[in-house]
Amino acid sequence: MLCIRLDRLFFTVLNTITLFPLDYSSVQLFFIMDILTYAERKDLINRVAALTLGEPTRLRNWLPAEHFLSIGTDKIPLNYGFNVVAYCERKAWIATPGLLIRLLQVWKAELGINQLITRLQALQPPQYHPSNRPWDTCLVHIEIPWISRDVTRQAIEGFGYPLHPNPFQPGVRVLVVSGPAQSGKTYTCEFLRYIRAMFGPGEFELATLDYKNVPVAGFGPKELIGLLMDQVNPQWQLQHGSNPLPDLSNQQPAHWVRELCKRLRDEVVRSETTWCFVLDGFDAPNVPQLVLQCIQYFVSLCAGREDFEPEKDLLRLVLLGFNESIPDYGKRVRIDLLKDPGPADIRAYFCCYAAYRGVEIPPEALDDLVALVLDDQQELHDPQNGTGMLEQPSPSRMYRIAQKASLIARTVIRQELAS
Predict the structure, then answer these.
(1) Between β-strands 174-178 and 333-337, what pairing exists: parallel, antiparallel or unpaired?
(2) In terms of domains, do 333 and 363 share one?
């Protein structure tokens, strides 16, 4: 294992990051997952640029549409090609088959591309956690640390425990994550995807819905449940005939909401698979009241407080921002109030990252690096901001701390490995 020298470490931090930001080409050399070689990455960026000319719809036959919003747009073809390849490489195991493999299918008739696809198919998701407990990881992607979040870790682990009384490991079915804008609530999805990748796709399936991406006009409980059912079973509307979901019509709203939620529950039961539903942004001021009531009832259904049968215990729910009152239902609902990471959290991240890269950081260097991260007067410039990959409007201190920690760790250890 390599050991970072203290004097060289701070020369790297103070000069490489602060005074001499990396240029665009050097950022291409350093990529998160190290799945592609530099030559492969450069070739794929050029291919995507030539294919799309900056227009996302030209990839619609190969990449699922829900990823286009995350990738963003850029009218400069090479920039857009870079963003597409960066996204697919960072999130290689977000889907099956992986996004990189799906992208490469465009050129699969070429021998070199076919060989690359075969190589990627043999790869396994990277394991960042040093123990046999994936919930303890401080990394889910290397560019942004997974720091602190103890309640979220415990809750997601509790998703796998049964609901029968157990004083040592009580089952959890609902997690509510609360915090200011840009505090990392949405990044919880990446943690869930990491856990799923570590256990394999048979452990649970993930369905996500971000309120800012839904059509606000006419959006109600029926639309909410329908969008979630689309992810559980894309054929459900054909299978249920001309009236797949009940209308409000003459029913009481409360009864209608219950019926809708139970229809979703029944679709999950038919799938014979545990589903984790992630609802993001439903703390927005314009969310209809009936939608909020629907979510509140769905919480009780997930927590086993309504019409519970052990064989139907396949629902898990994560609310990323939700202001309505929710009972804890005997600790089956957990609330994670996000706060700034402390020194111990930063230290754990550096140790986790260094162990993954096979580098040892001396204890005295760790103390100084932690102090640098938490020093609000020391601003570091991230060269990747030029590509739009890490830009965030008015990021919270939580985000800035995570970004600084990641930038320092990546730059210092990359320089050490290159020396």
Answers:
(1) parallel
(2) no
